[in-house]
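Appendix B, example 12.
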Amino acid sequence: MALQLKVSNIACEGCAEIITEFIHVIEVEARVDIDVNAKIARVESAAFEESIKQVIVAAGYTVEGYCSGSSSSQKLKFNISGDANKLFYIYSARKKGGVELIYPH
């Protein structure tokens, strides 16, 4: 599925790298192209659109027009198909709360 998402608080290439890393955690094969100036993330992925949006939010960014339905005290949930150890590392490094890992059985 190809998505084009407006991510209003992308400020630099570092932001683009973080978003790309988070998306690659849920799908290693995803193609991610981020235009920092236009604040647009283009993602080609087999993952569900909801999962892509949730992982961008979990990384600390805002997807324009998207409301996950989560308050700050609720958890974001998405299925992990990539490297869970990498997610723990990124999650820990970014110090973002509210991510519940759901492992495939």
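Strands lie at 2-6, 31-35, 40-44, 76-79, 99-102. DSSP finds three helices and five strands in the chain.
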